[in-house]
Structure formats: C-alpha cells, structure tokens
Amino acid sequence: MAAYAQVLLFAIPVLYFFIILEGIYSWKKGTQTFRSFDTIAGISAGITNSLKSVLGLTFFIIGYDVLLEHLTVVKLEINWLLYVVAFLALDFATYWSHRLMHEVNFFWNKHVVHHSSEEYNLSVALRQPFSEFVSIFFLFMFPAALLGVPSEVIAVLTPLHFLLQFWIHTPHIGKLGILEYVLVTPSQHRVHHALNDIYLDKNLAGVLCIWDRMFGTFQEELEEEPPVYGSKRQVNSWNPFKLNFSHLGLMIKDAWHCKSYWDKLRIWFMPTGWRPKDVVEKFPVNSVDQYSLEKYDTDVFKGLKIWAWFQCIMANLMLVHLLLFYAEVGFPGLLFYGAFIFLGIYSYSSLMDLEKSSIWAEAIRFLFGMGVLFYYGSWFLLPKLNLFMLMYLSISLLLHIHFVVKEIPILKVVRHWGKGMPGVHAR
C-alpha cells in the first residue's frame, strides 16, 4: 500500500494538470463540457476511491499470487516480451471484468458511479468506485498466471494501464485513423459512456480495442447519432456515496418487496437493470433515453459554489497529506484520517444536493476533527496546523449552518416554482 501511495503522489498533480488544461481549452472554445458540481462530484469520487485503495479496504477472492502458485505451466524470461504478454493479459482481464459489470446486476453497482456523469471530460475518468470491497478481478488474470508472469511485473504495469485509460475521456479529440483499429480511442470511449440504445454496453476494452472486435462488443461512433452521456436510470445526486450505492439500494428493496423467493435469489445475477415483475408494477423506476434525458442540476448562489470548490480542494490537500505521511501516521491513524475525509466529502456533496440533513454530517465531522486534535495533540503529525484546523472546522460548521438555514430554503422555492422538482431515480 505504501508503494501505491507513492504512485498516487505522482499521478494526482499530472491528472489535475490535464483536467485544468482541458477546462481552459473547453472554456476558450465555448464548448462548456464542464459544470462545477459535476466536476467536483467526479473529483470527490476519485478521492474516495484512492482512500479505499491506500487503506487496503478491498478483499480479493483469489489473489494473483495464488493463481501463480497453482496455474503456472511455463515461466517466461524477464525481458521485453514478458512485459508485452503481461500487458495483454492485464488488458484482457480488464475487458472481461468490465463486461461483467455491464451485464450482471450485482456487479453494475460498483461501476455505475463511472457512468453517472451527464458530461464527458477528463474529470469523468476520476469517477471510480469505492463500493467494491470484494473483488474477483484476478480470476481473469489466469492467462498471465499460466505463463508465470511475476506479480511484481503486474504491480508495475497496473497503474500504467490505468493512466493509459485517462486520456480517452475527452470530447475534444476526433477519430484517429488507423489507430481506431488497435487502440481504444476517445471516439470509441464516447460511445461507451453514451446511453443511446445503439451505444449501450459497447466498447468495453481498456487500452486495446481488439477485445471488443474479437468478442462482438465493438461499436463505431456515428455522425448521425451524437452520444448522450449518463445512465438510463439517473441517480440525480452529486454525492459519491449515493452514486456508489444507489443501484445496490434498489436491488435490496426489490429483493425485499418481491414475493417470489426465486426472484429474491436471482435478482443479483440477472442482466443489469432486471427487476421482478411485481415490484416493477408496485414501485416503478423512471428510465431515460437520448431524447428524454434532462441533466441533473442544482442551481445555487455563487457563494455555495465557491464554498464547495474550497471544500473539494481541502479534501485533496488532506489526501496528499495522508499520502506524504503514510508510513509515519500508520494504522489506526490512517483509518481515522480517511474517515474524516470521507465525512467531509459526504457533508459538502450533500450540501451540493441541497439536503438539509447534510448539517448532521458536518456536525459529526466537526466533533471528529476536534477529537483528533485533542487525542493526538496535533493534526496527524503537523502541530503547526492546530490553530488553522481549529479555525477551519469552526468556520466550516458555521458556514454550513448558514447555507442550510438561509440559502437552501430560498433555492428550493426557486427550484420548485421555476422548473419543478426533478424526480430521483436509480441506475
């Protein structure tokens, strides 16, 4: 985990640099592919995913080392060919793991957050799940295990493989000629993120599009069919926690309310979106298509928007601090720090959704932060930040109360009479 923390310290500024660069380009071009709250939601989802990873909160059903021990038939020599084989195996596993998420109800829950944005830009790449606490990914790595690819090689290639999927989340790069037959390009990945019927569940590969072409899931981007981004069942929230668990919540409710015990069992393994007939009739869930989608939005005063950006920046700075002092803080301090950052993200993202109940999350965060200062005598090994953190926690709680008591009631009235209250859906 410490090694992964070091990788993140390098990756975070690089990723943000390109997001800012794309934002400036989009603004100058007048394309408006970024919306503040959508971007904050994407960045916040990325923070929660990073925290879950560095804190080791994912359990693998079968680890890669176990596969190596039981499946290795031959061992390739450590040279350039080994790295090529390892990369191909990793990309193969990514394709099938990704396909499973799109085709099986239960596994869609861990992936829906990545498809929840109704925009398309580089910040969407950061919308990664933290709801996957149990993973079966390495089951698909059996080709690498058969050839005896060392786990160290996989560990080196995994972050590189992820970074190679970052650049394709942009609307500003057109088709790339002959590369369209080999690589997953921005054009192909725009198709993947679209909810248009012809594009749904297509182009599932990570870096090489050969898997989609080989296994029948390839779809070219069509000029006559512009992609419309989002999910068929809108979550309608900026809160990463709701984005991560909305689909699971729907399945649990359906399993509880349906009468058939067979349906209670099979709902988890049916195709994505499947629901028992009796709950469909009693508890209908709205679905949208490329023609009926209305983008989720919460019109707010400028002050709340600025405050949300400030809180998002603070969450990022705390994540960087946690990564820098990963070894020194150690456990259980890292878990406490992670919990504090999680609470902050829940608090400000709920405020972005205009939820009055967000005040309780902020109050708990205030008490949690004060407890850290009292128990450790410093802010996780940085005593010079004590006064700053005391002021920050106090001002944050007071401003949160102001937004909830003063601004949200006005905004809800304007929202109700101006456009009507949008319904909340699930997928």
Report on this model:
By secondary structure, this protein is mainly alpha-helical. The chain has helices at 2-29, 36-54, 64-71, 80-103, 105-108, 142-146, 151-163, 186-193, 210-215, 240-257, 261-266, 277-282, 302-324, 326-329, 333-352, 358-376, 386-418, and strands at 59-60, 134-135. Helix 4 packs across helix 7 (151-163) and helix 15 packs antiparallel against helix 16 (358-376). The two termini are 32 Å apart. Residues 420-427 have low confidence and may be disordered.
Strand order of the largest sheet: 1-2
Low-confidence stretches: 420-427
The outline comes out as globular
Q: What average pLDDT do the residues reach? A: 93
Q: Radius of gyration from the CA trace?
A: 22 Å
The portion of residues forming beta strands comes to under 5%
Number of helices: 17
- H and E order: HHEHHHEHHHHHHHHHHHH
Helix content: 55-70%
Head-to-tail CA distance between termini? 32 Å
Structural class: mainly alpha
Q: Sheet bearing the most strands, described?
A: 2 strands, parallel
Number of strands: 2
Give the helix/strand layout:
Layout: H1 2-29, H2 36-54, E1 59-60, H3 64-71, H4 80-103, H5 105-108, E2 134-135, H6 142-146, H7 151-163, H8 186-193, H9 210-215, H10 240-257, H11 261-266, H12 277-282, H13 302-324, H14 326-329, H15 333-352, H16 358-376, H17 386-418
Parallel strand pairs: 1-2
Helix pairs in contact: 2-13, 2-15, 4-7, 13-15, 15-16, 16-17
What descriptors fit this protein?
2 strands, 17 helices, mainly alpha, two-stranded parallel sheet, 427 residues
